[in-house]
Design brief:
It is found in: Nucleus. It comes from Hevea brasiliensis. Pfam families: CCT. The structure is a single chain. This protein is 35% helix and 5% strand. The protein is mainly α. The protein has a domain of 37 residues. It has a two-stranded antiparallel sheet with strand order 1-2. Strand 1 and strand 2 form a beta hairpin. The radius of gyration is 32 Å and the shape is elongated. The protein starts with 29 loop residues before the first helix and ends in a 7-residue tail after the last strand.
């Protein structure tokens, strides 16, 4: 029997994404990643400026139907209910 001190150590490549070895994984250009991130952030900030949080009616027909329905304390009720 061999003692654990004298056991032969076999170097195996460390596994990365999806079980592939690190050396197989393509190198990613960090400068390109930073540039893409910067573009994405600018696009996000531009879209953020055009956001509208005010209430707007999207469907006039739904608005008209809701206005004509009977309400009690702001909630719709059936026309036959007496509260």
């Amino acid at each position: 029997m061999h003692s654990p001190r004298h056991a032969k150590v076999v170097e195996r490549p460390r596994l990365g994404w999806f079980g592939t070895a690190d050396r197989v994984r393509p190198k990613v250009d960090t400068e390109l990643l930073a540039q893409n991130r910067c573009i994405a952030i600018l696009r996000y900030k531009e879209k953020k400026k055009t956001r509208r949080f005010d209430n707007r009616v999207r469907y006039e027909s739904r608005k008209a139907m809701a206005d004509s329905r009977k309400r009690v304390k702001g909630r719709f009720v059936k026309a036959s209910e007496n509260c």
